[in-house]
Description:
The complex is a heterodimer of chains A (297) and B (384). Chain A is mostly helical. In chain A, 73% of the residues lie in helices and 3% in strands. Chain A has helices spanning 2-32, 39-59, 68-93, 96-116, 144-166, 168-178, 180-185, 190-215, 223-238, 243-264, 269-283, and strands at 134-137, 140-143. Chain A is globular. Chain A starts with a helix and ends in a 14-residue tail after the last helix. Chain B has helices at residues 3-29, 33-62, 70-90, 100-128, 133-153, 167-173, 180-185, 187-206, 208-218, 220-225, 230-255, 274-284, 289-308, 317-323, 326-340, 359-383. Chain B is 73% helix and 0% strand. Chain B is built from 16 helices and no strands. Chain B has 384 residues and is mainly α. Chain B is globular. Chains A and B meet through α3, α4, α9 and α11 of A and α5, α12 and α15 of B.
Amino acid sequence: MITFIQFLITGLRLGSVYALIALGYTMVYGIIKLINFAHGDFIMVGGYTLFFTIPLLMGMGLPGWLAVIPAIVICACVGVLVELLAYRPVRRTGNSLTCLITAIAMSFVLENLAQAIPAIGPDPRVPYTLFADTISVGGVSISHATIITIAVSAVIMVALYLFTQKARIGCAMRCVSEDKSASTLMGINVNHTILITFAIGAGLAAVAALMYVSQYPRVYTTMGATLGIYAFVAAVLGGIGSLPGAMLGGLLIGIVQSGANTYISSSMSDTFVYLILIVVLMLRPAGILGKNVGEKV
Amino acid sequence: MNAKETKLRYLVNFIAVAALFAAAVALGLTGGDTMKLRITPSIWQCGYLIVMAASLNLVLGFLGQLSLGHCGFMAVGAYAAALISLAFQRAGVYDQKSGPAFILVLLVSFLAAGVLAAVLGLLVGIPALRLKGDYLAIITLGFGMIIVNIINNLPFCGQQGLGQGSASSALYATGLGFSNDEKMRYLWLVALVVILCVAAMFLFVRSKYGRAIRAIRDNEIAASASGINVNYYKVLTFTISAFFAGITGALYACCNGALTTTSFAFTNGSILNSVFIVVMVVVGGMGSLTGSVIAAVVMFLLNYTIKNGAWVAALPVIVQNVFAYPMLVYSIALIIVILFRPKGIMGSREFALCDIPRWPARIRAHFAGAGAARAAKKEVSYHG
Lengths: 297, 384
């Protein structure tokens, strides 16, 4: 029973991180129909920002978690830059496939640029561990990081959902993802909306980086690659373009992974993650909460 | 184009290919350290990259479906070929890597690698090809990962796989893995396999099947309305592509002393992974087999010269520091190619020797056309 609860909590915690990253994927995909492969690397950018700023803030006598603010700012800037320098020009000249290739290339650029910066280098770094204390409830030990991760992700998800439903910019985002030319006619600045989407998505990646780093205290330049793939799988699983879908998919992937780790074999956990993805896509090709849109002739 | 000219074109191409093959055979007979240590291994690597890129082009360029797990089929082919050759070796069919028995084993293991990969391609293709676009991309990625993960967990392959140093590696050393000397001796093999595979794919895309799959790429609904069985052709192309990826795997198994599954992952630090094969196809031109060949060779040479070339040392230190991260250079090069020539080196054209006399006229037409397009764009921007 204790193992079961432990596995469930680990799964929820892992899943919340995946869900935060998946939100970024799903928002960008919803608005420009592009798998932003560089999104995983925004986590890496966030991770390194945390690595450098946490000691700085602690030195100033402030709590370490405040480092998430510079991380969000820097990630958002990187996200906006990637959109401005690479995606926007390519979107103008190319088709969806060339955009996808650009995204892949951008991911390589970020990973290798980080390695080429002398202060970062190719070796993994160990950041300061935040929220290391644990509490014990009925024999199950839960670290503060776990509680904070789950709570913060839940709050952010609800806030984001309300934002897209109620706020003006959120409405603009939904309009642009529905029909770009019609929203231009309604006086929405499409390019600004896309930029804001990138900034929000990348900011969420920075929060996810804080959560991930407090769980596994290691930052390295390719940390975003695998995390990004899991999160993307989560976004597709839930139905890409749908925010509740991304949350659901993230939690599901986290729980499946932690279950496979606990009960079957840690080296086979990838197989189960992808198996779930394949089964869901076979049964519901648009994902769990995705809408199946018919093709117009 | 009349029938006589077509015949002439085939003849010219046939002679050129035969000359290439003869050159490869002749190179294999020469000696010398540069030849043995540098050129021959490079030709082998180029060989498998070429077939790999061309086989993905069938799915990506001609059928218009993005597959991100193509290296999974290659992994199946590589492990199948290596294990089959090992089994023959243990059964005592051959013990030296020469003689007719070994050639027969080579043939069997290459074919088995291809067929096994094709069967897997069929099994993956039937469910996966119900999906389209990004969903297909992600589900093929999933299948590719599963294949690699399962190979990792098979007791007779293992995480270290048929690696050097493990007990199975001693066996593998006597299996397919070629040393540099044997690579020289079997240079004709890689030339033959590459030529046969690319020729077979070329004939496939020129046949009525090829026309059908190009129709599907251009407009799936129109194709199915014209009586093309869309699902059948999709799965067929996917299976054929997997077959050639399997053959490529067998070439890879010959070329390397050790097999590990990281070589077949979705991304890794090297030039061989599912993503990079996609990149090769796009750079070469989707829908151009000769473009894939050119792109594979160009990418390989770029990779090779950045790592080993003497000219890198002559560059300023800042540039050298950047070149210490070849992936950075490729990815920036890739973004530039995509920005300025989104359809790749060859577009959907095929390279043909007989077309060379027509090039000057074409280049003039291209620049004239580009000028006209610019003028038209200016016109549009005035109004838009």
